[in-house]
Amino acid sequence: MPIFISVLFIAFVLFLSPFHAGAAETEAPDLETSSTAAQQTPEEASADTISGNQNQKIFTLVIENDSIGGRGTDKNYTSGVRFGYLDSGAEMPAIAYKIDDYIPTFEINDSTSVFYSFGQNLYTPSDITNPAPNPNDRPWAAHLYGAIGLATATDDHVDEVEVSLGVVGPWALGKQTQTFVHKYITDSPKPEGWSNQLKNEPAIVVAWQRRHPQYLSQDFVGLNFAAAPHYGVTLGNVYTFANAGFNLSVRPSKDMWQDAPVRVRPALPGTGFFDVPENDWSWYLFAGVDVRAVARNIFLDGNTFRSSSSVDKRYLVGDANAGVAVTYGRYRLSYTLVYRTKEFYGQDDPSVFGALSLGYRF
Prior knowledge:
Radius of gyration: 20 Å
CATH architecture: Beta Barrel
CATH topology: Lipocalin
Helix content: 10-25%
CATH class: Mainly Beta
Shape: globular
Strand content: 35-45%
Strand order of the largest sheet: 1-2-3-4-5-6-8-9-10-11-12-13
Oligomer: single chain
Largest sheet: 12 strands, antiparallel, barrel
Order of helices and strands: HHHEEHEEEHEEEEEHEEE
């Protein structure tokens, strides 16, 4: 049954994928074309942030883990892996027009991009070698999901909408994944408590987020400095919260067509879009904060319809992050260091973890 569920989610992502779309690809802009970005209006810059006026397709692999940013303690949010595909010139799937009809703040236009993702998140208590459940520590949990999302620029803002379908529980293959990694890759202690994990439950999340990429923007000595506030709402049996925050960025003015790296949800927004000339280097520095008012977090509250382990969550959680993205032609490597405040009462320390992503544009 777990293998069947995994295949089902992969099929879900591939079925929705627009690989068959007939939009013609165009070449990346040259240096002369890119340099005009510094003179763009906020509306034009917002659109170019997610589309670059190009039909670009980008694959992204994101790995989040406390071993690449924290103390490698294997507790709380211990691992997240996300495979993503962004198509900035896609033929819109039918569901996109449904979203356009039912969400008054969302509008499909020439800038609209579609993105797909498939991922798995793991959550464990402090002591993974103890097979007994600890009522004072967070439950063992895994989340396996596939998602489809849209990003579109209207006026001076970018709206992102994402629908995620998946499963929480043994069918999410958390035990198999962590056991394999600890045994064959990291030579870490064997995780002994997966028999206490949350029970199987369908996982549904619908998220909307708005940001203003050029709310404050200034060019100085060939660099662009920008501040971008954001706010949004996420609903579902996995997460239900409202969030707000801002992101600060510095990049070469001639390479304005860059967006913040993709992250595993919940996280600061970013499509991971980049478009720089072939055989040329570029970079992107960023830092930001995000505050969430959390009504539900299944990984702390426990199963929705069945009795399970749980802890008393904190209703206000904040993230602070800083990082760098380096681009060479069609490749982009990004690293983000994340500090997350305590998520439940009794948690020993805040969470600190790193996010590493590799993008390929074609």
